[in-house]
Amino acid sequence: MVAPQQPAASNLPPASPAQSAAMAAAARSTRLTGRAALLAVVICAIALSLAYPVREYIAQRQQIDQLLAQQQSMSAQVKALQEQSAKLNQTWYIEQQARQQLHMCFPGEQCYEVIPGRSAPAPAVRKAAPAVPWYARLWQSLRHAGTEPSR
Prior knowledge:
Helix content is 62%, strand content 0%. It is mainly alpha-helical. The protein has a domain at 36-105.
């Protein structure tokens, strides 16, 4: 077997032990070891496996917030309808609505409805004759200027 050739160290000055240790540490730190590669793969796998569940969690939280807002709106609507139902169970409210909306009255009562009359017609304003446009006046003055004055 042939051994690979080493560069000639005869023209380089001898390195001190501190310099050679620093060069060896620099060479080791730039190399990607098997452990570092495995650690990078594991971290990427964990990140990718957590991406979908986190996205689903955020979507579900948004949906929950929308449903809570809808629930509050519906409960306010139910409360308003319950109040209206309670009013409709009152006799005085039914009578009031019958008088106002249906113009009804009890037997023996005379009901009157005031119908707004017609207002008096406004006095006719006489319109002024339409003003002669500027270009017509200009044309008339040019025609008048072209004629000889009468004596």
